[in-house]
């Protein structure tokens, strides 16, 4: 029996309504765009561990054989996270994102689990949490390090 494949998350692709606006937004947040040869057909950003991909919403839905309409106006059941090293960094990340066109969803606050977090959305409403979580270390390499 062959060995099973090694599980890994490599790319998170976000459906977007305006490629140019979304590319500009993610570049403004400081994510480094790679593979510029794809133009505005698809965009890839290095996140330090995985990749964020941007693809036109209707084409992504078609590719996944899902309906393009109606587009959800409510919670989609997932968030993206930007883990931080301190509460001060959480506040800075949220203020920075808002200054680049994000919408603030929830102000930074102490959480019931002993962390500190707040939320913003990208131009298409994809929610991001900026967070400091107990026992989740953000190293000097800016990557998340989880305990065993």
UniProtKB/TrEMBL annotation:
Domain VOC: 8-133
Region forming the signal peptide: none
SUPFAM superfamilies: Glyoxalase/Bleomycin resistance protein/Dihydroxybiphenyl dioxygenase
Protein name: VOC domain-containing protein
Species of origin: Bradyrhizobium erythrophlei
Lineage, broadest ranks: Bacteria, Pseudomonadati, Pseudomonadota, Alphaproteobacteria, Hyphomicrobiales
């Amino acid at each position: 029996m062959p060995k099973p494949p090694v599980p890994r998350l490599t790319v998170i692709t976000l459906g977007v309504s305006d490629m140019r606006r979304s590319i500009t937004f993610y570049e403004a947040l400081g994510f480094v765009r790679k593979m510029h040869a794809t133009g505005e057909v698809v965009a890839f950003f290095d996140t330090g561990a995985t990749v964020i991909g941007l693809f036109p919403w209707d084409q992504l839905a078609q590719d996944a054989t899902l309906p393009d309409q109606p587009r959800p106006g409510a919670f989609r059941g997932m968030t993206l996270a930007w883990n931080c090293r301190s509460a001060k960094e959480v506040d800075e990340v949220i203020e920075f994102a808002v200054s680049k066109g994000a919408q603030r969803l929830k102000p930074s606050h102490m959480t019931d689990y002993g962390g500190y977090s707040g939320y913003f959305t990208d131009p298409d409403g994809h929610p991001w949490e900026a967070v400091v979580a107990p026992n989740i270390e953000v190293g000097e390499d800016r990557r998340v390090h989880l305990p065993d």
